[in-house]
């Protein structure tokens, strides 16, 4: 009978499999768990790419705002 693991072990397993698929300590052996690991990886990759895209858009908007502010400052003399 497998022992029950705590939240730390679950977080370690989920983070490891999200970062590198199949390189974690936990290997799925049945078809449902393989699908679960695949779904977990797809969700993780999607969240990471959406976060990076959002940060890049915010950075670009801040740069445009700063350029406009500097232009107004120089034009006001």
Describe this structure in words.
With 77 residues, the chain is mostly helical. It has a domain at 52-77. Helix content is 77%, strand content 0%. The protein is built from 2 helices and no strands. Helix 1 (7-19) crosses helix 2. The chain crosses the membrane at residues 35-55. Residues 17-58 form the Potassium channel domain.
Count of discrete alpha- or pi-helical segments spanning 4 or more residues: 2
Per DSSP E runs of 2 or more residues, the count of β-strands stands at 0
Low-confidence stretches: none
Q: Strand-and-helix sequence, N→C?
A: HH
What is the assembly state of the chains in this entry? single chain
Pfam family, one: Ion_trans_2
Domain Potassium channel: 17-58
Keywords: Membrane, Transmembrane, Transmembrane helix
Transmembrane segments: 35-55
Feature tags:
77 residues, mainly alpha, rod-shaped
Sequence-ordered SSE layout with sheet pairings:
Elements: H1 7-19, H2 31-76
Helix pairs in contact: 1-2
Task: Offer a concise description of the structure.
The chain is an all-alpha fold and 77 residues long. Helices cover 77% and strands 0% of the residues.
